[in-house]
Amino acid sequence: MFQIDPRLAGDSLEVTSLTLCQVLLLNDRRYDWLVLVPRREGVTEVLDLSPQDQVQLWREVTLVAQVLRNAHPDCKLNIGALGNVVRQLHLHVLLRQEGDPAWPGPVWGHSPREPYAAEAGHAAAELWRMQLEQEAQA
């Protein structure tokens, strides 16, 4: 049975489910940062997915990336799949801008997260959910 790694679940808010992936909002108010987790048990690398799932994963990464870029077209889009701490396959799709706390270096491990206030986090997750649904229907 598929379950999101507890560390991912603890660091994020649920946004929506796509065909393959669960989409999460990283709970750090400093960044527009979504995480895609393929709902496949025991998968740690993209290579572990079936060829069909690999294609679907990139479709969903593209969808999420387009939604983020539409929201802030002047920002730099970053996509990454590290997996050094959380081995469960997950892809980070986030926006960066000059002057953000980690600029120009990587955001991973730069500084402690700054979580959303509860209401603000739920509102942000809901906003991304609505934008993903709109883009998927376009």
TrEMBL record:
Provenance organism: Pseudomonas flavocrustae
Descriptive protein name: HIT family protein
Pfam family, one: HIT
Occurrences of domain HIT (ranges): 34-103
PROSITE patterns, sorted: HIT_2
InterPro entries the record matches: HIT-like, HIT-like_sf, HIT_Hint
